[in-house]
């Protein structure tokens, strides 16, 4: 499987060069300088100039005045001035920047173009500190020539990461050229685009290996690069090739970026709204948004030209936002289980990529009409309104919360303020439970909190740990329960991944060590049984047939999602290892020096740092400002509050993404169930009540009843009488039985009894469900884990 790497350009000596360039800066004084005047003798042909002008707008904005724009631009100017001051255009082998040595390879070239891009964007933005300065323009021109001659031209070979040559550098080069194109000669423009033509002349295929057909985000990026490059040269064939690549005209549509795949896993969007990249990784939280950003750019730059995308294609693109992305956004951030290895990137937290999604949605809305425009703006307004932890319009740290590689400094802010000034109303939060069986993900939304799971199967990888990234993501696909709370919107962004105990992620059942000595890559899980059933917008069940990395630990695990909380059942927990087995109820990031009272059965639990407390058979526990926990069996719980220290470099050493070595210390509250060494058929039963008060916690046990918790069936009865059950094999509970593995929900729906069934294994043609002696054959072939609903 070809592995791609998208460069966030962060790390070591490159840190300052990289993250700033991917960021919308903030806090500064208003600047008033005029934008540079275009050259009357522009080398860009008049017929395709609107495409280039529109692409320039994505870099320099629309000059919509506001204090927030001024602050953003001043911060960009600060960075651009620093890069310009340290830039040398002496030539003769002298590096442009002393910390970015010249020479073959991909480690530094992208950062050179990224820094030059910052200078050029500031030069071309009205009000920028360098705006219109002829001396700066001459230096930009000289730098373009020097980098072309020494680093990136049509004769260089791809060394290192293919992405650098075929997508990363071309994008930054086009950002720069779109700003200064009117100031170049036709010969210069053609010269600098020669390597782009070599590496992206055919966006359908990998330039360094023509047997690789581009898919997903990589195809969309190359398509947009082709459209804009072709427009700069007046190469109409290249423009058309780029547009055709979006729907894979050359391949008969097989790799169309908007095709909805009706199969398990595989790169691209799927009929149930899933998005996969790298064949087996759920990636709405990175590659999917990169793809959407490119599609938004393609619509934007061609709008109103003879190359405008057809309306049916645009409608499909618009629909992607609500179908594939919006379900996984909480408080303006993308949820952790759809971010793959990007969990470890210091420069790309869930809020960073959430801002990029917001900007892509705003750009799409600008080209939409009617209800589509209203709906897109409503989502963007909602994310901006809820994003209090990382405010979209007012960001104090210019190296944080990036709006995406195509939109730096002013455009995102200007588009957002345009939208808000139009009176757009934020979308409402509505209860939802949605299963994405083709990527082994679900999302459960209530008006107060949300949740999701990180699981795996024979279809979906347990983790992605490649290119020096996600170095401690050992168990992110082993049944992690993620909970998202309104008073802790920065929980996973606030140095969570470099400081959390990676062996004790909430929801997982694991050994206390050792980890897989061969950890790395993108390994799929060993069992097919992963998935669940949706009953309604407020209820659902999910099952996971777990086996650890070496097969020495197995467990049957279920999560039952309700409006009040999540009931967690485990059975058949058996280990042949000499290591102790533990199930983590909670491991909450309380922040730097954070606190909060922990109660168990009404008594305060000691929280002295580093001192564990043994809670003997508690009925309930409550963590202040976090929520409650109800113990549904006679298990004892270990409580531990501790400070943990780690650096982003500990989990990401990627050549162009590595984090800083700065230590971060965060306080955690752990609640752990101890199963001992070599347990046989051990079990657990507890409920997690996100955001619950003490009173809510005390009364919550009345909300459901555990009906079964065995290696064959795990089931509860929810409030209202609905039964939610996961069968790992043929079995029965009460008057409900099944002929094989299934997730089942049954209850009253109005005046009738309704049955909902899914096949978590995605392997069966049908399953027979018997209810009170009446057998119903439920066809499941080709449903890929989707819920079938029948009246019985």
From TrEMBL:
Keywords: Lyase, Signal. Coiled coil: none annotated. The keyword Signal applies. Residues 705-768 form the Polysaccharide lyase family 8 C-terminal domain. GO terms for molecular function: lyase activity. PROSITE patterns: TAT (PS51318). It comes from the Bacteria. Residues 72-379 form the Polysaccharide lyase 8 N-terminal alpha-helical domain. Residues 1-28 form the signal peptide. Transmembrane segments: none annotated. Belongs to the polysaccharide lyase 8 family. This is Polysaccharide lyase 8 family protein. It comes from Amycolatopsis plumensis. The lineage of its organism: Bacteria, Bacillati, Actinomycetota, Actinomycetes, Pseudonocardiales.
């Amino acid at each position: 499987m070809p592995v791609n790497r998208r460069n966030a350009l962060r790390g070591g000596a490159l840190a300052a060069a990289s993250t700033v360039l991917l960021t919308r800066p903030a806090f500064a004084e208003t600047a008033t300088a005029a934008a540079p005047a275009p050259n009357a003798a522009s080398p860009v042909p008049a017929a395709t100039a609107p495409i280039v002008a529109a692409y320039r707008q994505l870099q320099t904005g629309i000059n919509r005045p506001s204090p927030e724009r001024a602050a953003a631009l001043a911060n960009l100017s600060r960075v651009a001035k620093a890069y310009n001051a340290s830039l040398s255009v002496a030539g003769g082998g002298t590096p442009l920047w002393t910390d970015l040595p010249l020479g073959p390879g991909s480690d530094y070239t992208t950062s050179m173009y990224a820094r030059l891009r910052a200078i050029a964007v500031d030069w071309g933005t009205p009000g920028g500190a360098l705006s219109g300065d002829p001396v700066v323009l001459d230096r930009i021109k000289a730098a373009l020539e020097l980098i072309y001659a020494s680093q990136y031209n049509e004769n260089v070979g791809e060394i290192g990461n293919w992405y650098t040559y075929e997508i990363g550098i071309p994008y930054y080069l086009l950002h720069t050229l779109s700003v200064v194109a009117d100031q170049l000669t036709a010969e210069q423009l053609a010269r600098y685009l020669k390597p782009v033509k070599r590496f992206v002349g055919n966006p359908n295929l990998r330039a360094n290996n023509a047997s690789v057909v581009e898919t997903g985000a990589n195809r969309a990026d190359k398509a947009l690069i082709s459209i804009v490059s072709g427009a700069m040269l007046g190469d109409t064939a290249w423009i058309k090739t780029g547009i055709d690549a979006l729907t894979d005209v050359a391949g008969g549509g097989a790799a169309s970026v908007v095709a909805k795949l009706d199969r398990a896993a595989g790169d691209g969007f799927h009929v149930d709204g899933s998005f996969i990249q790298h064949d087996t990784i759920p990636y709405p939280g990175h590659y999917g948004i990169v793809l959407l950003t490119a599609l938004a750019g393609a619509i934007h730059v061609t709008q109103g030209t003879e190359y405008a995308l057809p309306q049916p294609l645009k409608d499909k693109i618009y629909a992607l936002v609500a179908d594939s992305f919006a379900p996984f956004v909480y408080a303006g951030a993308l949820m952790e289980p759809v971010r793959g290895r990007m969990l470890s990137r210091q420069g790309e937290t869930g809020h960073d990529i959430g801002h990029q999604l917001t900007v892509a949605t705003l750009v799409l809305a600008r080209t939409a009409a009617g209800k589509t425009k209203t709906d897109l703006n409503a989502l963007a307004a909602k994310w901006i309104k809820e994003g209090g932890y990382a405010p979209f319009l007012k960001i104090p740290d210019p190296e944080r919360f990036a709006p995406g590689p195509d939109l730096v400094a002013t455009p995102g802010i200007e588009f957002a303020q345009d939208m808000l000034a139009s009176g757009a109303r934020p979308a409402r939060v509505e209860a939802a439970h949605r299963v994405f069986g083709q990527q082994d993900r679900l999302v459960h939304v209530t008006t107060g909190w949300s949740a999701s799971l990180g699981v795996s199967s024979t279809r979906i990888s347990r983790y992605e740990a490649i290119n020096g990234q996600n170095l401690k993501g050992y168990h992110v696909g082993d049944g992690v329960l993620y909970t998202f709370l309104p008073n802790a919107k920065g929980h996973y962004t606030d140095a969570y991944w470099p400081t959390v105990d990676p062996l004790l992620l909430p929801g997982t059942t694991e050994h206390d060590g050792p980890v897989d000595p061969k950890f790395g890559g993108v390994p799929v899980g060993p069992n097919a049984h992963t998935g669940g059933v949706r009953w309604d917008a407020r209820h659902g069940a999910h099952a996971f047939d777990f086996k650890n990395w070496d097969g020495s630990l197995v467990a049957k695990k279920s999560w039952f999602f309700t409006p009040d909380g999540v009931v967690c059942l485990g059975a058949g927990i058996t280990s042949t290892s000499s290591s102790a087995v533990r199930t983590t109820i909670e491991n909450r990031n309380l922040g730097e020096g954070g606190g909060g009272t922990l109660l168990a059965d009404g008594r305060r639990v000691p929280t002295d740092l580093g001192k564990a407390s043994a809670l003997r058979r508690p009925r309930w526990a409550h963590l202040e400002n976090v929520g409650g926990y109800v113990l549904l069996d006679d298990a004892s719980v270990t409580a531990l509050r501790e400070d943990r220290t780690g650096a982003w470099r500990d989990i990401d050493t990627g050549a162009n993404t590595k984090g800083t070595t700065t230590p971060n210390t965060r306080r955690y509250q752990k609640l752990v169930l101890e199963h001992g060494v070599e347990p046989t058929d051990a079990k657990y039963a507890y409920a997690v009540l996100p955001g619950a008060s003490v009173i809510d916690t005390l009364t919550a046990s009345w909300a459901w009843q555990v009906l079964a918790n065995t290696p064959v069936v795990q089931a509860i009865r929810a409030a209202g009488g609905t039964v939610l059950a996961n069968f790992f094999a043929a079995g029965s509970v009460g008057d409900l039985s099944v002929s094989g593995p299934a997730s089942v929900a049954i209850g009253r729906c109005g005046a009738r009894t309704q049955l909902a069934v899914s096949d978590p294994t995605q392997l069966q043609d049908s399953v027979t469900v018997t209810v009170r002696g009446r057998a119903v054959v439920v066809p499941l072939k080709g449903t890929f884990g989707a819920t079938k609903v029948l009246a019985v």
